[in-house]
Prior knowledge:
single chain, alpha/beta, 6-stranded mixed beta sheet, globular
Amino acid sequence: MNDAAGEVVEIAVPVAVRRAFHYAWPAALGVAEVGARVRVPFGSSQLVAYVVGRRAIPPEGVRLATVLERLDPPGAPTFSEAALGFVRWLAEYYRAPLGEALRAAHPSAANVQFERALVRTPAGRDALSVAGDLSAAARDVLTRLGEAPVALEALAPAPSPSLIRKLADAGLVERTHVVAAPRVAVKTERCVTAVAPPMPGAAGRTRKRDALLAWLIGRGPVAVREVREAFPQAAAHLRALLDEGRVVETFAEVLRDPFFGEPVVRDTPPALTSAQRQAVAAISEASGFEGFLLHGITGSGKTEVYLHAIERCLASGRGALVLVPEIALTPQLVRRFRARLGDALAVMHSGLSDAARFDQWRRLRRGDVRIAIGARSAIFAPVEALGLIIVDEEHDPSYKQGDGVRYQARDMALLRGHRERAAVVLGSATPSLESTHNAAVGKLRRLVLAERPTGGHLPDVELVDLRLDRPPRDAAPFLSVPLRNALAHALGRGEQSILFLNRRGFSNYVQCRTCGHVPECEHCAVALTWHRGPQLLRCHYCDAVRAMPGQCPECRRGELGLPGHGTERVEEALRALFPAARVARLDRDTATGRGLASVLEAMRDGRIDILVGTQMVTKGHDFPAVTLVGVLAADAGLAFPDFRAAERTFQLLAQVAGRAGRGQRAGRVLVQTWNPAVPCLEAVRRHDHAAFAAQELELRRALGYPPFEHAVGVRLDAREPEVVEQVARALAERLRAEMAGPAGEGVRLRGPAPAPLLRLRGRTRWALLLTALRRDRLRALLDACEPTAFPRPADVRIIVDVDPQDFL
């Protein structure tokens, strides 16, 4: 530490290292504030990092680098004490680097970016005047540089690293950094405000100028664009008023948000049922933290419970956070909330532009709004005085982050509620078995909505046995006769239908008609899917595309056929079977841009007769005219190598079945299956979540799976298959050796084994699964996976996934 350093700070740097770094804090930067963003040197780079602690004495034997700049104004750190404590706990639990967790919790586009740069030294300037001492390349670089730093990206063509090193070693240039243009900034627009009354009788005045000033008086700041709309020919008059000092110019922030572009008519709250009133009362009367499981059948009015609970929360002076599992659900939920609560809410999810996310975060951080709605990452939303957290469709696996910081937003909602003394409501028609178990043992308070407020009943569910009702061998071999007849009947009555197939594309694989070869992705161990629209074969894991080969790449003789089917093919077949029907498709291929909103609006307005879709059609949509739901391949999800396969199949089918009969007419659901005796399908037929959960939980207890034992997945991957297998086996042996001691008591190790999806993006994958009754046993063992405890080749990655949801 030098004399200019005031103290030592602990800095979380957003790199893949699970520890903080110590830096000297210069006295010139004022008082160090925990939670603030700073600019620090890190290796040869400069990074935005976060102050997470302070200490008076530097650690012994450590040479300290110095913090270069504070990026937050004094008194306004990016993370409050509560927010920092929450993210710190999350990072520790999920074994994630704290710096990376903090970066995930804040709109990263708002951070300053630093680019590597070069600056010419006086010696470099002098070298240019000496003939013959420099190579042509060196002379070219020095000529393009000056006394001000120049970003390497601006030096086109960029000098080679070896040339830069040679020039720096010779003292002709210095390496430095420059601040790059920010990805987002506060957007403003020009406004005018009237500050003085008109001057009757003043020379040179006109009635139009007086009319303009009279219109501005009392309105406060008015955007110049609004002035031009009201007074199209008033530019000269406005300039004159500014010159006179009767109008002053200001700039106002403009919010970028696609959800508030259209006005929404305010609604009238419907009368609550007795069960809804009891649920609202229980949630609103919670003193401090309490967790609730709101188990309501599809169409039972869970959203009304949410709205009433939020209104009461706001009335008490506190804020609310609402999580939804999919971006697809956000537009309709935002519309519903605006109709009831107005526009004083912020929307946060990955579908927004960087700029829009930045705006929403700032509105919440300033306390301008007290309601946040968003998908998984909204768990970090800086809602002031948080009083209520709602997790809608809490069972949905998309609440688990699949890469980077692998947190489960549902579980973190309970943690955040506990830390901030807020009530937490987990809502679902098909609760996860973890939440079902937690309610049974008293960790959550169960609230039940067993009826639909409209008086309607759950739809009748029929299992169509494809062994008996084999579909015709025509262009639609995936549609059984009972389903075709049901579609024709619904069309004849002017009703809407939904067909569910969790498989997009035209054909989910292509196959040689001569040798049977199925082309796979060259990077992943999966078959390529044919998409007729763009006329391409596409990998649904790495998104690689290729043209359809003219002949089989294996035997070089056969023609490639399209034996599979996906939503694109189903859509085409329906148009051929029912030429008069208005058929639409909702999947990832059609939901980009305005596609999602357009399809949902058309469905609500009755401009679609049959909607075909993937799981995007199963969640939360309320279409009163839908009376028929068809499930084309109910068995597909049961084949997944995952102990949650039956649970997820039940949830998906029960959810899509719940789209039928939500209006005045009764609903009907036809589920096509090759094995109607499967218990989860029978439970779907009877709408019997309790029976399914009881049977599945007993099976989980016997096998030692969550929620009875805690689980941690360990996945290894590398480019070379032999290398990753060798390391996986060595790691398993190391873990077994640790388990032989006291730390391994009650711990089970499954594997190592090749991952079900063996190759992904060019890397071969192996997996292990650890389970234990006590979390601390797992934490102790996981230390053996750290690079310092278990050295491995540089190309081998080891990923630790606490509470894993995906076993592929």
